[in-house]
Design brief:
By secondary structure, this protein is mainly α. About 80% of the residues lie in helices and about 0% in strands. The protein has helices spanning about 1-15, 20-30, 40-50, 55-70, 75-85, 90-105, 110-125, 130-145, 155-160, 165-170, 175-195, 205-220, 220-230, 235-255, 260-295, 295-305, 310-330, 330-350, 355-365, 375-385, 390-410, 415-420. Helix 5 (about 75-85) crosses helix 6, helix 8 packs parallel to helix 21 and helix 9 (about 155-160) crosses helix 19 (about 355-365).
Length: about 425
């Protein structure tokens, strides 16, 4: 197994994409261990890894997000958030966080959120006198709100891999997301007082009704998704298709900003993103097979038993390992790779699978904003045209807030389980 890990790291370092690094490392392992005959099963394992009907939710939710983004929804949400905030010192920073929270119910992916919100808010904050690295860091921190609420792609994949209720996972991530959103807002208010940030321009009273009418249909998307699934009107897969159709209809007839070229581009972006996700999931299935051959998951579980039999210590240890894994791997790939191990470790933790899922996803998402490899950091640094080092330094206090929420998710079950229980049980 050491050979596999070394090969994987080498391929990553030389710039080979994650999916191909996983595949090449698997081939190298089989070749060196004289198990070349197992290559016959490689295509079968890849197909089996993505042969799940629920995975159809991923392209449909990606399409819904792309259609909403193509309909210029980001600017509508930003203006609506600005209307809600009003004239408050440091208000534009608060608008950044609130817009990220609202956009979370559309995108489902941290990278999409960082790009969409960052392209609007970072230049606006810069013009208003904010330091560019602070604006970029705040956008990156807000971007991880997306994968915690419906239609989170990471929670969907966790639900598929563990047969956990996707609607319960969607509900479970909402309170942690709002908790993190609230902490980030408090942080922006403190920074505004310390650094004397400016007040934003007021939204004219004549605009407010129009902004509300344009923003609310988009903000209803997560309500339609969760409400429809929870009430039994449609399955998660059908909910994803409904979300895509809903996004298309309001873009065409309400916002009237979707053109044939924009729709075609949204479908193209959806196809390329879906292909990337599915390729990672498919190839990572082969890695899971190799982990099984080496009996790695059971060995790690046995090793954790020897470290301690206290669940809280094991949870802390697991969080540290997942944070490190998130530093180097894209969350969906890390999730597929880690699940064989996590399935063995899970019984030792005495934790609900829904709570565990939110904890795992939040762990991996924090890696997206953690230096030196966080993908969202690269995106916002490119938009702000600031050195990655300055943005990474500016985001450190916000990472601390994310870690605080992670501890709450791990050790306060009601934070994640309260809403699913209130709305129908797990």
């Amino acid at each position: 197994m050491i050979l596999y890990l070394l090969a994987f790291i080498v391929f990553l370092v030389i710039g080979v994409p994650v999916a191909f690094s996983l595949g090449l490392a698997s081939v190298a392992y089989l070749l060196v261990n004289d198990q070349w005959q197992l290559m016959i099963g490689f295509p079968q394992k890849m197909i089996a890894g993505i042969d799940n009907f629920v995975l159809l939710t991923i392209p449909f939710f990606i399409l819904a997000g792309n259609l909403m983004n193509s309909a210029d929804l980001t600017r509508q949400i930003v203006r609506f958030a600005q209307m809600l905030v009003g004239r408050v010192k440091g208000g534009l920073a608060m608008v950044n966080v609130l817009a990220s929270m609202m956009f979370s119910g559309v995108s489902g992916a941290a990278t999409a959120e960082a790009s969409a919100i960052g392209s609007v808010m970072i230049p606006a904050m810069r013009r208003d006198g904010y330091r560019a690295e602070y604006a970029a860091a705040l956008t990156a921190a807000g971007s991880i709100l997306g994968p915690l609420v419906p239609p989170s792609l990471a929670l969907i994949l966790y639900g598929v891999l563990t047969s956990t209720s996707i609607s319960s996972l969607f509900l479970a991530g909402i309170v942690p997301a709002f908790t993190l959103c609230g902490l980030l807002i408090l942080y922006t208010l403190w920074r505004a007082r310390v650094e004397d940030h400016p007040m934003p321009d007021p939204v004219a009273k004549t605009e407010r009704l129009g902004l509300t009418v344009r923003a609310l249909p988009a903000l209803m998307l997560p309500v339609i998704i969760v409400g429809g699934i929870r009430s039994g009107i449609f399955t998660p897969t059908e909910a994803a298709a409904v979300a895509a159709l809903y996004a298309l209809l309001i873009g065409l007839f309400l916002y009237r900003t979707l053109t044939p070229s924009k729709i075609a581009n949204a479908f193209y972006e959806t196809a390329t993103m879906t292909a990337g996700v599915m390729l990672i999931v498919a190839v990572a299935s082969m890695t899971s097979f190799i982990l099984g051959i080496e009996n790695i998951p059971r060995a790690i579980a046995s090793g954790m038993r020897e470290v301690s039999d206290q669940p809280w210590i094991l949870i802390l240890l697991l969080n540290i390992v997942l944070l490190l894994l998130g530093l180097f791997l894209e969350p969906l790939a890390a999730l597929v790779l880690a699940m064989p191990i996590l399935n063995e470790v899970f019984p030792l933790l005495h934790i609900d699978p829904v709570q565990f899922g939110v904890m795992v996803v939040l762990n991996l998402m924090i890696g997206m904003i953690t230096p030196p490899v966080g993908l969202c950091l690269f995106i916002v640094a490119a938009i702000s045209k600031e050195p990655l080092e300055k943005v990474a330094l500016a985001i450190l206090p916000m990472i601390g807030l994310c870690l605080l929420v992670l501890l709450l998710v791990a050790f306060v079950p009601i934070l994640t389980l309260g809403l699913p229980t209130l709305l129908g049980g797990n």
